[in-house]
Each structure stands twice: as structure tokens, then as C-alpha cells.
């Protein structure tokens, strides 16, 4: 088949070239008569019916090139004095119609150039005469040629051929007539030949469609095509041409041509007639994809600015009506995906045109719910559709952020998604809230939000585990939400927190480990804020909740619970307004101690924890002294019972602060601790790795030598210094190299400190 | 025979200024002929040129004007509707070169020079020098007569609706019934019903020569022009324009009853050809006339 076409083309082209050569010779010899004869023979090759549109197009292009030479010659002849009207008649003497009309168009275009007659008159004659070709393909190409050669010669506004100021109308008439006629020819192709050739024929028709669409392109590029002219004449006429053809291929293509060719502002102004046309198209026309194209373009246009027009035209209402019509007709059928694509385009447009109108978005979501519900019950909800639902949910979120929380249809639509998609949307919501740093200021909003993001918060029937890294990201973002809470009253604050607490508590340990600490800190931050603002409030309920939080964390991670618990204690301790919660603090700390005793087994964590405990306990003042003393003794006990001697030494050294701080100044006990630590250190002194321990100890000694005079003896300090210097400057094992060099740096800094004090006349007894 | 003693020739006056046009003779060969109108005088002269020192005796010189019709249908038949003879010289002898003027004045030449398929009408002048012993010296020259007509006022359009039931129904229109030879036929064909697969449509001009008159008359048709006006198959409602320049063809005016010998009439034939090459046609007579030379 293809080869046949090649052969036919080759033969035709060789004849065209031969005749073109003869024609050129005749033109060179100024033999017009002979040249026209050759031209006729050349054009006659296009009388063929055996070519496919693509092959014919190639032939047409070959002839087209030659025709332009002829046109040039006609113009030269005119300049040499030949009457163009004679030539116009002369070419009509050809008895064969196809060559005659091609030649007529060629002379006609030159005729316009000469301006001996108004362009309008010539165009009118040409457009009338070309009716003689009723064969679809030959007619389409002849008219395409007409369009091409007259392209620059239409009496458009501002054109030299516009003699009476009415030229644009004439050009419009010309192009509309040509469009109408070409469409008729094109549509007619569908009804020729046998039924079994239908596929081939439709392919051929598609190959030819640009020849028809060219008219719309030309119309759109007319300078004089004002909005007014478009509304009053051009669009109604094109729509009439389209609807009256009753041919789906044509309608599908030409409607799309309108969308692509004319300015978007024109589309907005003609939305109503345009949309009203769509239901009149053939049932097989895919109106949805047409609408998607239109809405996408309008959305892009709206995105570029100038939205004044939005105020004067009910864009949403008009489109809604059109879209709903389609939904009513097609929902539940096989077109779910396409319907949702349409909804996506619509929602995008609505968001661009009405970025603040949540009602509109909710309405679109509502009709989406209808589509999805029907599709779901008829089993037509495929994966692609689900992806589109995610889009429908994502777009409003990106634009409107938390305003989506007012849309009741949002979670309804979400409900149709499978777990992973639901979770994906939920995550996007959380992410959007976190990134926008929007404050969460009402119980209702939070309740809605939590409702929306429930897939992230608790396991449902269809839950699937996330990848660890994903899960972490999800929960970290969820955890951040609580820090966005801001409310007008403490009660509101607390009830919002409580919402979070209630839902977090259902999340299971894997989530709680992320969400509870965050919530705990949010609580503490809030309580501190209240206290700073001198708001007196009963904290018992809140502290109970905090306690519950800690208890739960303790089950999962005692270490964490201890750290967090200490934070709570310090927070309570810092209250100035609500200062009577020492008992609660004591209770917290007691529980922490029992956690230490019962849950901690690891040497390292015991060491770390005891130091933390020590640090916290040294700052506490809100607890009654008896309890406080008990606590201190327990901590001291913990310190002395560290497994490693060096750890014991460190911890005991730290414990000095328990006795000498803002609230206590017990020098003897400080001295006791230091001595005990020094005693243990001595046991450790054989291991050069422990040299750092001595430097630490030295610092503690110096600290208290300055802070609590009398608690430390300077000889002891000098003794330690001497020992250290001996260690770090002497021989040592290669194994201890790291520890020794660290100790050197530490020691160097310590010496520098001592010397700086000595330069101020202090620490004279200390040898550095 | 013994060699001619001289030559006789014939010439018409004022040929330099006169319009000359090509005319085909019956064999198709083109001759350029001077053109006269019906009441113009035919003026010229006969020249006798002697060979040096010779004398030419003759039985008289006469000049004749003929308007002749040749019909070559079935059997050849010649008739003269003009046959005029003038004595130019009485019998005698010519001793020196002479030039004898002649003139046919006020001879009405109402018929036009015409060469058709079977009928031919021509004008010629013939000079004859009668000889006693030798054969007569004869010379003929042909000239053409073309008569311009004035435009007739009454000239209505031709409109017609024709069709074959359930198959094809068209309405056509030609702007006039009478066209001059350089005229343009403008019209249109409107398709009311199309149930056949039309391949193309053409307009033909048929020339009908009617030989004889009255009951014995026979008609002979000849298509002398074909002009394609539509390519492809139209659908119902299609309106196809027609514009045919008659100047593209070699046509003669319509002649009615030329000296009771023949008539020439013209018909426009609208022909539709379908894909099986069946032809559907309708003929309409048009009157052709000569507006100018």
C-alpha cells in the first residue's frame, strides 16, 4: 500500500516537473498561451483519486511551489502592461475545472495585489467559483490553496487592501464561508466508500483536518477581529457550522480549534454560548476532553492576572451547569476517569479565579463525591481515578491551605481513597499546615483537621505500615502540629491540646514516641506562658494529663520518660504565679527515681541519667525540704553505685552541686563529696586513660575553691595539678593517646583560666 | 500549351486597412480572409500582365460575384444565392499591360461566411478571360462576410427544473437566452436531490445544422465545446456556479433558414456523468449573435 503510494506519487511528480520545466521555458519565451497550457497539464495531475491525503499533500506541495512562480510571472506581466482583467478571463477558458480554478485563484491573488478591483470583490468571486470542486479531497486542497495565496491579501484592518474600512468584515465572511464549505466537504468524506473502510477513512479524515482548521487560525489572526465582532458574528457562525455538520470528528476537532486559536479573554466573554453548544454536539463527541482543554486554558489565563472579568461573568455558575449536565448523564458509567479529569480541571480553574471561595470548591468536591460514589457502586473506580481524587484533594489544599477544613465534602471524598492515598493526602494536609505555619486557634478547626488526617493518627481497618523513614517523616510533621496551637483563653488552649491528646493516645506506641514528647513540650510551653502572664489557674487536671503522657512514654522508653519528667519538674519549679505545685513536682521526681531504679539497667544510661537527675535536683526549690533531702540522698546513693569507678567519681563530683547552689550552701557536704571523689580518683589513677577525670576533678576543686571558700584546701588542688602534669607529660600507653591528648587541651584551658585569675591577684595559693 | 502569353490576376481594393480573419475551409485548413459586411461594396481590379512583346487575344473578360452554399450531406449540392456577372472587356486583343477596375455596389450579402460540418457558405469573385482555342484564363478570390447585429432587448434568463424521480433533481439557470459570441454564460445548478454518485458535470455547446427546410429537413448535431463545471459528487442543497466564456470557442451566430438551404442553431447541454459513466443531460437552445468583429 505504502509502496503503491510512493510509486503513484513519483509518477505524478515527474510529470509535474516535466510540465513545470516546459512552463518555465514558455514563460522565458513570454509565451503565455503555452505556459498556461503546461500549467494546466501540471495541475491536472492533482485530478487523481488514487492518493492518500498524505501522498496528495506531497503532490500538492510540489505543484504549489510551481504555482508561486506562475503568480510572480502574472504580476510581472501586469507590470509590463497586460490587463489583469483579461488574464483573469483568459485562464477561465480552460475547459477542465481543476486546473482552471487553481489558475483562477493564482491570477485572482495577483488581481488583489494590483488593487484594480477591491479585494472584497475578487475574494467573493473566488470563493464562489471554487464551489465547482465537490470532490472532498480535491476541494479541500483547492480551498487550502485559496487560503494560502490570499493569506497576506485579506482586507484586514490596517491592511493596504482594506479600502473602505469594512475589510475585516469581508475577510471574516470569506474565511467563514470557506470554513463552512470545507467542513461540508470534509464531513462528506465520512459517507463515501464502504463500511469496512471506516477506520482507514477516519484516519484519512484526520490527516486532512488541518486544512479545515486553517480557516479558524486565519480568523483568529485577523487584526480587526475585535471582541465585539467575535461575539456578534464569528463565534455564533463557527458554532453553527460545527453543530449543523452533525459529524463527531469535525465537531471534536473544530471545537478544540476554537479553544486553541482565540484569545482566552474572548472565551471568558463567550462562555455561555460556547457551553450551551456542547450538549448539542453528537453523542460520540468527547465533551469532557473539550471542557478540560478549555478550563485548563482559562485557569492558566486566570493565573496570569487580570481577573476583573471574573467579577462581571459568572464563570463558576456557567461551567458548573455544563459540568453537572455531563455528570448527571454519565456518572456511574465507564467514563469515571474522564469525569474526574474534568473535575480536576474545574477545581483548578475555580481556585485560580476564586482563590478564596471555599464554597465553590466544596461544591465541586460534592459533585466529585457523586461521581465517585456511583463509580464505586458500579465497580468502575480504577487506580487512575483514585489518583485523580488525590489531585482533587491536593489542589485546594495547596491554594487554600486550612480553609479546606470548612469543606464537608473533603473528608467524604477522601474516604473513597485506599489507605495509602488517604494517608498521602493527609500527609499533604499536615505538611501544608506546618509549612504555612498557620495557627490552630479553634477547637472546631483542630477537630476537622484531626478528622482529615486520621490516616496518619490511628490505624484503621485497611491500614498498611509505612516504610520506616516515611513513617518518621509523617509522625514528625504530625508532632509539629501541636506547636501551632494558639487560643484566646487557657480553657480553649487546653481543650485543643486535649483533642490532640485524645487522638494521639489512640495512635499506639510507634506514633506516641513521636507525638507525646511534642505534646508534652507544647503543654509545658503553654503553662510557662500562663505563669509568665501571671494567670492563676488550677493545673491539676493538666498535670494529670502530663503525668499520663509520661507514664505512657515510660512504658516505651524509660530514658526518655526520665528526661521529659525532669523537664516537667523544672518547669513546675520555675512557676512564680502557680507556685504551689511542689508536691506534684516531688511526685514526678519520685516516680523518676523509681523508674531509674526499676527500669534502667544499662551502665551508660544510668551514668547519664544520674547526672541529669543531679543537675535537675540542684535547681529545685519548690519541694519541701524533707523530701528534697530524701531525693538528694537517693541521688548521692545512685552516684556512688555507678558500676565503673570513673563514673562514680564523675557523678559524685557532680553531686557537689546538690549542696551548693542558689538554695543550699553546705560547704562540709561539698567538701565531703570532693574528698570522696578524690579518693575514688586515686584508685583510678593507675589507668592513664582516666587522666581526664583528674582534670575534671581539678576544675570542680577550683570552682568550689572560688565559690565556697573554706570547702577546699589549696594543697590538695596543687597536688592534683602536679599529678596531672606528671601524667600528661610523662610516658603513657599508645592505647590512651586519645584520652591523654583531650586531657591536655582541657588542662591547658584550665591553666589559662587559673593564670587569668592570678593576674587579677586571686588564686595566689594555686600553682599553675 | 505553347506557353501563356500573359497572366491575369485579381485584387480587392483597400485590403491594407481591412480586417482579416482566419477561416477554416471544409478540410480544416485556415485561410486568412478579408472581412466585409453585408452592404459594403466589393471594389477591385483585374490586372493583365503580358509577357514581353506578346499580344493576348480574347473573347471577352467578365467578372462575377458569387455567394455560394455547398451542402455535403449525403450528396454534394451546390447552390448560389448570389451570382452577378459584369462584362469588363469585349472580345479583342490586349497589347499592353492593363488594369481594369470593377465594383459590385449595393449587393446585399445577408448571409455570413460559414464552414460547418456539412454546410459551407462562401463568397468569392471570379474573373474569366474567355479564349478561343486555349482554355479560359480564370482567377478566383474569396472574401468573407460577417454581419454584426444589434442587441435585442428581450433577453430573459433560462430557468428550469428537471429530474429523474427518486434519483436526481436539479434546478438550473442561465442568465440569458441570447448571447453574443464573446459573451459569458453565467448560471448555476442547484441540486435538490442527489441519489446517484456523480463524477462530474459539464456544459457542452452543440451545434445543430439543419439541412434543407420543412418536412425534408434533417438535423446533424456536433459538440463543438465542452466545459467542465463541477468535479466530484455534490450533495443535496449544493449550488454550483457556472461561468463560461464563449470567446474561448470558435462559434458562429445562430442562422435561421439560410436561403432555404440550411440553419445553424446552438444548444447548451448540461451533462452529469455518474461513476458508472451514465450520462444525464438536458439541452437548452441558446441564440448566438455577433456583436462585433
From TrEMBL, chain A:
Matching entries from InterPro entries are given as: ARM-type_fold, Vps35, Vps35_C
Q: What Pfam families does this protein map onto?
A: Vps35
Q: Name one GO cellular component term.
A: late endosome
Highest taxon, organism lineage: Eukaryota
Subcellular location(s) per record: Membrane
Main location per UniProt?
A: membrane
Membrane-related topology note: Peripheral membrane protein
What are the UniProt keywords, alphabetically? Answer: Membrane, Protein transport, Transport
Gene3D superfamilies according to UniProt? Vacuolar protein sorting-associated protein 35, helical subcomplex Vps35-C (1.25.40.660)
Gene Ontology biological process terms, A to Z: intracellular protein transport; retrograde transport, endosome to Golgi
> What is the protein's known function?
Plays a role in vesicular protein sorting.
Which PANTHER family does the UniProt entry name for this protein? VACUOLAR PROTEIN SORTING-ASSOCIATED PROTEIN 35, VACUOLAR SORTING PROTEIN 35
Family per record: Belongs to the VPS35 family.
Q: What is this protein called?
A: Vacuolar protein sorting-associated protein 35
UniProtKB/TrEMBL annotation, chain B:
Record carries keyword Transport:
yes
Q: Does the keyword Protein transport apply?
A: yes
* Domain of life assignment: Eukaryota
What's an example GO BP annotation here?
A: intracellular protein transport
**Gene3D superfamilies according to UniProt:** 2.60.40.640
Q: Which InterPro entries match?
A: Arrestin-like_C, Vps26-related
Q: Which Pfam family, any one, appears in the UniProt record?
A: Vps26
Q: Which family does it belong to?
A: Belongs to the VPS26 family.
Name of the featured protein: Vacuolar protein sorting-associated protein 26
Amino acid at each position: 500500500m505504502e509502496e503503491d503510494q510512493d510509486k503513484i506519487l513519483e509518477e505524478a511528480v515527474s510529470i509535474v516537473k516535466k510540465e513545470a520545466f516546459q512552463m518555465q521555458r514558455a514563460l522565458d519565451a513570454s509565451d503565455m498561451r503555452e505556459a498556461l497550457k503546461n500549467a494546466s497539464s501540471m495541475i491536472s495531475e492533482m485530478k487523481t483519486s488514487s492518493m492518500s491525503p498524505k501522498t496528495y499533500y506531497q503532490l500538492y506541495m510540489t505543484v504549489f511551489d510551481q504555482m508561486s512562480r506562475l503568480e510572480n510571472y502574472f504580476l510581472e506581466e501586469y507590470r509590463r502592461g497586460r490587463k489583469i482583467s483579461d488574464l483573469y478571463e483568459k485562464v477561465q477558458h480552460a475547459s477542465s475545472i481543476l486546473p482552471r480554478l487553481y489558475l483562477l485563484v493564482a491570477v485572482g491573488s495577483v488581481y488583489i495585489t494590483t488593487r484594480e478591483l477591491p479585494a472584497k470583490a475578487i475574494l467573493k468571486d473566488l470563493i464562489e467559483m471554487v464551489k465547482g470542486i465537490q470532490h472532498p479531497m480535491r476541494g479541500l486542497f483547492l480551498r487550502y490553496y485559496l487560503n494560502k495565496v490570499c493569506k497576506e491579501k485579506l482586507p484586514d484592518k490596517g491592511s493596504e487592501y482594506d479600502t473602505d474600512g469594512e475589510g475585516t468584515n469581508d475577510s471574516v465572511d470569506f474565511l467563514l464561508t470557506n470554513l463552512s464549505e470545507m467542513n461540508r466537504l470534509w464531513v462528506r468524506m465520512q459517507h463515501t466508500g464502504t463500511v469496512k473502510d471506516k477506520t482507514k477513512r477516519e484516519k484519512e479524515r484526520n490527516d486532512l483536518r488541518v486544512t479545515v482548521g486553517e480557516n479558524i487560525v486565519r480568523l483568529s489572526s485577523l487584526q480587526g477581529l475585535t471582541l465585539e465582532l467575535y461575539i456578534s458574528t464569528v463565534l455564533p457562525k463557527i458554532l453553527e457550522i460545527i453543530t449543523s455538520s452533525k459529524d463527531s470528528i469535525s465537531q471534536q476537532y473544530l471545537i478544540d480549534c476554537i479553544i486553541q486559536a482565540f484569545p482566552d479573554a474572548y472565551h471568558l466573554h463567550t462562555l455561555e454560548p460556547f457551553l450551551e453548544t456542547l450538549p448539542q454536539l453528537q453523542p460520540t463527541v468527547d465533551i469532557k476532553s473539550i471542557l478540560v482543554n478549555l478550563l485548563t486554558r482559562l485557569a492558566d489565563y486566570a493565573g496570569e492576572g487580570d481577573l476583573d472579568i471574573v467579577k462581571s461573568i459568572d464563570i463558576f455558575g456557567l461551567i458548573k451547569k455544563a459540568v453537572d449536565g455531563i455528570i448527571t448523564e454519565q456518572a456511574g458509567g465507564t467514563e469515571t476517569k474522564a469525569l474526574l479529569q474534568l473535575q480536576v480541571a474545574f477545581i483548578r480553574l475555580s481556585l485560580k479565579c476564586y482563590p478564596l471561595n471555599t464554597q465553590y470548591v466544596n461544591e465541586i468536591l460534592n459533585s466529585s463525591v457523586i461521581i465517585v460514589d456511583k463509580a464505586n457502586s458500579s465497580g468502575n473506580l480504577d487506580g487512575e481515578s483514585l489518583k485523580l481524587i488525590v489531585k482533587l484533594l491536593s489542589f485546594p489544599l495547596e491554594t487554600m491551605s486550612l480553609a479546606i477544613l470548612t469543606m464537608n465534602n473533603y473528608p467524604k471524598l477522601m474516604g473513597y481513597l485506599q489507605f495509602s492515598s488517604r494517608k498521602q493526602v493527609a500527609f499533604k494536609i499536615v505538611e501544608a499546615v506546618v509549612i504555612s505555619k498557620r495557627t490552630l486557634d479553634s477547637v472546631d478547626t483542630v477537630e476537622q483537621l484531626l478528622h482529615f488526617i486520621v490516616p496518619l493518627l490511628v490505624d484503621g481497618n485497611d491500614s498498611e505500615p509505612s516504610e520506616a523513614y516515611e513513617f518518621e517523616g509523617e509522625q514528625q510533621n504530625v508532632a509539629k502540629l501541636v506547636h501551632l496551637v494558639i487560643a484566646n483563653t487557657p480553657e480553649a488552649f487546653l481543650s485543643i491540646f486535649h483533642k490532640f491528646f485524645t487522638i494521639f493516645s489512640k495512635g499506639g506506641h510507634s506514633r506516641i514516641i513521636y507525638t507525646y514528647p511534642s505534646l508534652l513540650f507544647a503543654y509545658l510551653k503553654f503553662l510557662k506562658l500562663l505563669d509568665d502572664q501571671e494567670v492563676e489557674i488550677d493545673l491539676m487536671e493538666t498535670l494529670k494529663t502530663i503525668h499520663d503522657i509520661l507514664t505512657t512514654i515510660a512504658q516505651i522508653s524509660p530514658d526518655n520518660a526520665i528526661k521529659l519528667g525532669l523537664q516537667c519538674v523544672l518547669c513546675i519549679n520555675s512557676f512564680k504565679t502557680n507556685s504551689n505545685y511542689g508536691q506534684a513536682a516531688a511526685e514526678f521526681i519520685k516516680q523518676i527515681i523509681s523508674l531509674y531504679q526499676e527500669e534502667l539497667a544499662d551502665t551508660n544510661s544510668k551514668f547519664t541519667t544520674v547526672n541529669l537527675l543531679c543537675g535537675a535536683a540542684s535547681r529545685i526549690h519548690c519541694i519541701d525540704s524533707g523530701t528534697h533531702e530524701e531525693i538528694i540522698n537517693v541521688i548521692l546513693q545512685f552516684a556512688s553505685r555507678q558500676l565503673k569507678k570513673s563514673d562514680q567519681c564523675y557523678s559524685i563530683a557532680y553531686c557537689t552541686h546538690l549542696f551548693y547552689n542558689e538554695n543550699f550552701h553546705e560547704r562540709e557536704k561539698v567538701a565531703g563529696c570532693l574528698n570522696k571523689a578524690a579518693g575514688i580518683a586515686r584508685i583510678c589513677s593507675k589507668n592513664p586513660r582516666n587522666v581526664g577525670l583528674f582534670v575534671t576533678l581539678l576544675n570542680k576543686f577550683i570552682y568550689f575553691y572560688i565559690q565556697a571558700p573554706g570547702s577546699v584546701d589549696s594543697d590538695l588542688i596543687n597536688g592534683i595539678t602536679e599529678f596531672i602534669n606528671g601524667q600528661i607529660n610523662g610516658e603513657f600507653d599508645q592505647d590512651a593517646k586519645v584520652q591523654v591528648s583531650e586531657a591536655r587541651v582541657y588542662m591547658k584551658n584550665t591553666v589559662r583560666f587559673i593564670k587569668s585569675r592570678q593576674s587579677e591577684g586571686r588564686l595566689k595559693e594555686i600553682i599553675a | 500549351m505553347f506557353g501563356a502569353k500573359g497572366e491575369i490576376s485579381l485584387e480587392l481594393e483597400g485590403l491594407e486597412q481591412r480586417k482579416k480573419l482566419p477561416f477554416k475551409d471544409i478540410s480544416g485548413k485556415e485561410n486568412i480572409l478579408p472581412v466585409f459586411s453585408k452592404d459594403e461594396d466589393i471594389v477591385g481590379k483585374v490586372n493583365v500582365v503580358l509577357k514581353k512583346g506578346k499580344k493576348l487575344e480574347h473573347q471577352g473578360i467578365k467578372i462575377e460575384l458569387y455567394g455560394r452554399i455547398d451542402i455535403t450531406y449525403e450528396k454534394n449540392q451546390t447552390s448560389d444565392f448570389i451570382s452577378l456577372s459584369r462584362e469588363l472587356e469585349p472580345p479583342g486583343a490586349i497589347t499592353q499591360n492593363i488594369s481594369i477596375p470593377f465594383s459590385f455596389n449595393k449587393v446585399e450579402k445577408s448571409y455570413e461566411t460559414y464552414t460547418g460540418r456539412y454546410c459551407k457558405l462562401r463568397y468569392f469573385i471570379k474573373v474569366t478571360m474567355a479564349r478561343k482555342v486555349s482554355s479560359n484564363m480564370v482567377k478566383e478570390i474569396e472574401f468573407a462576410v460577417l454581419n454584426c447585429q444589434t442587441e435585442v432587448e428581450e433577453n430573459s434568463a433560462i430557468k428550469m427544473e428537471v429530474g429523474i424521480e427518486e434519483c436526481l433533481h436539479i434546478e438550473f439557470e442561465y442568465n440569458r437566452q441570447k448571447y453574443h459570441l464573446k459573451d459569458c454564460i453565467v448560471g448555476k445548478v442547484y441540486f435538490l436531490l442527489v441519489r446517484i454518485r456523480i463524477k462530474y458535470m459539464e456544459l457542452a455547446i452543440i451545434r445543430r445544422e439543419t439541412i434543407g427546410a420543412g418536412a425534408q429537413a434533417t438535423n446533424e448535431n456536433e459538440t463543438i465545446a465542452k466545459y467542465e463545471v463541477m468535479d466530484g459528487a455534490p450533495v443535496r442543497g449544493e449550488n454550483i456556479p457556472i461561468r463560461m466564456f464563449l470567446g474561448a470557442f470558435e462559434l458562429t451566430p445562430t442562422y435561421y433558414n439560410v436561403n432555404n438551404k440550411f440553419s445553424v442553431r446552438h444548444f447548451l447541454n448540461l451533462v452529469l456523468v455518474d461513476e458508472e459513466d451514465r450520462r444525464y443531460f438536458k439541452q437548452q437552445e441558446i441564440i448566438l449573435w455577433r456583436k462585433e468583429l
